[in-house]
Amino acid sequence: MEIAKENQDIFFTDREGRRNTECLSWGIDKERVLRGRTGIEVCFDFMRSFHMEFRNLSEEGLVSSIEIGLGASGELRYPSCPETMGWKYPGIGEFQCYDRYMQKNLRQSALSRGHLFWARGPDNAGYYNSRPHETGFFCDGGDYDSYYGRFFLNWYSGVLMDHVDQVLSLATLAFDGAEIVVKVCNAGLYSYYLMDKFASTYYMKKLIRTLC
């Protein structure tokens, strides 16, 4: 992508500054950094163009459903556990919130709560292959359950849920009038689902509870 050559911050980024180019950061959902368009606008334009190009196939019943990609590997999740970064199951993964735009979003959220010093990712959440008990953030009684920890995890999961809401709302609009079922693919990583901390995939636990 030509844009990415000039601005790598359109991709998710981990604490060490490593970019994941599998999907665009949700930090640009409302930022006009894609040649005048936001990430959400590009997504909508793609869906609408797809519908117009293949409209005859849906009208003839040859296309009856569409699966909307909402994150890494087309699944509803952050790219928290990339094998390209050395992750192996059952590592907890890493937070993907260090691109310029996610950091801007985090700063605004922290300011709205009156705690600017919360505008940072956890510095003790371990690495891709850490276990929860090996970290200061996810261990029993760790920072995940502090005022800051709850704020950060709620913000992190909230960004995902906002992205999902916007994309699916626009999918309904893009495919309006077509007899097509819109589907999504849930993530399949639940290594620590029964634990309160749920490591860096915490947002999935909250989202599943919201959807059920």
Automatic annotation (TrEMBL):
Keywords: Carbohydrate metabolism, Glycosidase, Hydrolase, Polysaccharide degradation. One of its GO terms (biological process) is polysaccharide catabolic process. It comes from the Eukaryota. Its EC number is 3.2.1.2. InterPro entries: GH, Glyco_hydro_14. It holds the Pfam family Glyco_hydro_14. PANTHER family: BETA-AMYLASE 1, CHLOROPLASTIC, BETA-AMYLASE 8. This is Beta-amylase. The keyword Nucleus does not apply. It catalyses: Hydrolysis of (1->4)-alpha-D-glucosidic linkages in polysaccharides so as to remove successive maltose units from the non-reducing ends of the chains. GO terms for molecular function: beta-amylase activity. It is an enzyme of class 3 (hydrolase). Belongs to the glycosyl hydrolase 14 family.
